[in-house]
Amino acid sequence: MLLSIENLYVKYGNIEALHGISFHVNEGEIVTLIGANGAGKSTTLNSIMRLPPPEAPRVISGDIKFRGQSILNVEPHDVVAKLNLALAPEGRRIFGNLTVMENLTLATYARKNDPDTEIKRDLDRIFDLFPRLAERKTQRSESLSGGEQQMLAVGRAIMTKCDMLLLDEPSMGLAPLLMYEMFRTLKQINQEDGLTIVVVEQNAKVALSLAHRGYVLDTGEIVASGAADELANDPEVKKAYLGG
Amino acid sequence: MQKHTFTIALFLSCLGLVGLAQYNWLDQYILTVIMFMGINIILSSSLNIINGYMGEFACGHAGFMCVGAYVSSVLSVAIFAKDKVFGAPMLPPDLAWIGFPAIILAGALVAALTGLIVALPSFKTRGDYLAIITIAANYMVISAIENMDIIGGPRGFQGMKRVINSMYDVADIPWMLIWIIIGTLFSIFLIRRFVTSTYGKGIIAISQDEVAAEIMSINTNKMKISAFMLSAGLAGLAGGLFAHVYGYVNPQSFSIMKSTECMVMVYLGGMGSLSGSVLSAIIFTVLIEALRFIIPEVDSLMHSIGILPDSYEISQVWKWVIIPMILFFLMQFRPEGIFGNRELPDSFPKLRKFYSFK
Question: Which of A20, A117, B191, B216 is least enclosed, having the fewest CB within 10 Å?
Fold first, then answer.
């Protein structure tokens, strides 16, 4: 088990956002968290990444374990640098006034001890997965289209050298075709590189078609879980999230 | 070869400047203006690390300058000169020219440590709130020094001229000009190395999005400490040089007015542009000095055509109307400053042949 969330309660100020959720992610899996707005999906990811407030809530009780060790006292930059978790955050949050290449190399910030050849190999892999980024290498990233920015956000997260990639709403603001392309690429990364992926999505149908397993969140609680195809056919889930 | 053209040209022009000063071909006044230019270059480019590259809003730069000025002045007088308070020199004054850089660097180091006053609150605060903290830090430094009677309190501190004079006894060369050239080149070199390194790119990331920087494995708190300390340290270095050019320091010369001057220079040159900072420091120094002559001219002109009553005189105080007006018009018509966040070779690609920023 790579990641396990154990009975997690978190609060924003006085408001409890997660009421004791538990789930786990195995190595090499794609797991999706689906649910409506305000269900606590992003809160869960931000808690795992240990983001500083105001983005992240306070953990009241419960534990987050990565490779069997509690990470509640790890600082966010160390979660990325030492534990090799990576997040492509909601709304992309790329560095607009830096070029595509600078965004990608900035992600190697903590990889000072890695040989250049390894970083070069990872960069080539990103450009191989997202050929559009290769075309736009020297362009300022604020001038990219929404889809390209999302590719950059994913590529940038992978460049930090991750064992587990967390994606917060990767389909947001993408045209359907681009969205399918993005999900195909994610599947490819998972199959070819063996990268474990956790996807938080509102678009439950696409997310379930990509994932191996899924969890359904509703107002801070997990209401359903199981294999992705079972969830997709579950009448309750269908009714609530897949539009009948 | 062409890549080094700029470096060689810079070196030769500095050498030429020293030569001109050595043979008294430069007026003492012009020489002083050139020295202030150097100090202003250090001030504006070091503040640019914070206000430009890191996107914070620090308004207390003169406070750090003050720390550097006082620490290095007190050290140089105590070590190399006979003084009422500090007694006989600790080391023979002949050695002043060797000890001087160490003294200036000591001042810079203490100023860098003072920078922590601002760096630590910056972990939790940003924007306006941090601006208020920096102003407070500026005032704290000034009132602390005003209340230290041993170093002259509000009367100021002097005696540095004796140290400089003992350098002239060793060799008759324009010492202060040389120190300022070295200090300026050192600062520019350091800042350029800092902001072009991957490490330094971290502060640009912080200016854009702190949380995103953090998930790019950047230790934002550590970056902020190093940026604030570097900026404050270089301000201290400029302060030390400033004190030794004047031979006299007074806490009030490092008031919020001085901090404003630093900020005007940064915004005039462009936030996040090192060449912009250098250029605007030069323009600003020349402008300030030019006003010394222009204001009396305007005064007499206006009196001769009878616009002003005889009892009123346009004094040098008007400088403080004109400088804020520069900021006013700048923000109206070119808010990004002369260079924006670009460097000289970005704006004039032909220069790239001779000089590369990265």
Answer: A117
